[in-house]
Amino acid sequence: MNFTHAITRKPGNSFPYGITTAALGKPDLELALTQHNQYCADLVQLGVQVDVLPALELFPDSVFVEDVAIVEPDFAVLTSPGAIPRRDEAQEMLPVLELHFKRIYQIEGNATLDGGDICKVDDVYYLGLSARTNLEGVQQLAAILNLFGYRSVLIDIRPLESVLHLKSAVNYLGDHTMLLDPRLAKLDEFADFNRLIVPLEEAYAANCLRINDGVLVPFGFPQTLELVTNAGYDAMLLDVSEYRKMDGGLSCLSLRW
Ligand code: CIR
């Protein structure tokens, strides 16, 4: 899990008008910007070169760059986001990807896919089937990944209505260790892993982010912090309260390779 590059995008003035189910109130834009700056600074501190893109006012959710692409050192895949207001957001990332990647694939036709549903675990990709990512999307991505020798495993999260994306509930910390929302902890697909299961009341914190030698942990979830620290990781706490209000978390805020 060695990352050298990341792409982020600043939140715009339209950020509070994005899609959300959180019922936590409107985000404070100034605080969101401060938290975004800190996020980028933390990535830099962990040894990553960060390309910070300007805000896109037409797309309030475009700060959540993870959803519009899957990136690997050798190739990138532009997605087709499942939420209608976000559908054209992916195309805005194409010129940026062209600066970094020679081979770029696209999810096409009726397929939909959000990057938040895609969880890489060493040389296997876990692909979440969700309200945002459909079977065609998963199949198109699996075929592309197969070209590069990656195996894909499908995880159907549709029964969990309150879970937006696979990575809202499942994140790989490296070292054969999965951080899991308790509602997905019993799946056979994760049985062979060292499983760190966050308590249900801290389900939001299942979205921690391993970057090189550190693990970013959202501020305000003490049991998860203890779980991650006790497992031997160097935790870095970061407050992402304003992004939580818009259903987003730590992984959503960057593309990493
Ligand atoms: C959305 O509903 O699409 C945004 N408000 C939140 C996206 C969060 N992204 C992620 O989990 N990868």
Word description of this protein:
By secondary structure, this protein is α/β, with parallel strands linked by helices. The chain has a single domain (about 5-255), classed as 5-stranded Propeller (L-arginine/glycine Amidinotransferase, Chain A). The chain has 5 helices and 15 strands. Strands 2-1-15 form a 3-stranded mixed β-sheet, with helices on one face. The model has no long low-confidence stretch (mean pLDDT about 95). It binds citrulline. Citrulline (CIR) binds near residues 64, 164, 165 and 248. The site of citrulline has 18 residues, from loops.
Provide a short characterization of the protein structure:
With 257 residues, this protein is α/β, with parallel strands linked by helices. It contains five helices and 15 strands. A three-stranded mixed sheet has the order 2-1-15, covered by helices on one side. A three-stranded mixed sheet has the order 3-4-5, with helices on one face.
Task: Summarize the helices and strands and which ones pair or pack.
Elements: E1 5-9, H1 29-45, E2 49-53, E3 69-72, E4 75-78, H2 94-100, E5 103-106, E6 118-121, E7 124-129, H3 135-147, E8 151-156, E9 170-172, E10 177-180, E11 194-197, E12 209-211, E13 214-218, H4 222-230, E14 234-238, H5 241-244, E15 255-256
Parallel strand pairs: 1-2, 4-5, 7-8, 10-11, 13-14
Antiparallel strand pairs: 1-15, 3-4, 6-7, 9-10, 12-13
Bound molecules: citrulline.
Citrulline is lined by residues 18-20, 61, 64, 66-67, 83, 86, 116, 164-165, 168, 246-249, 252.
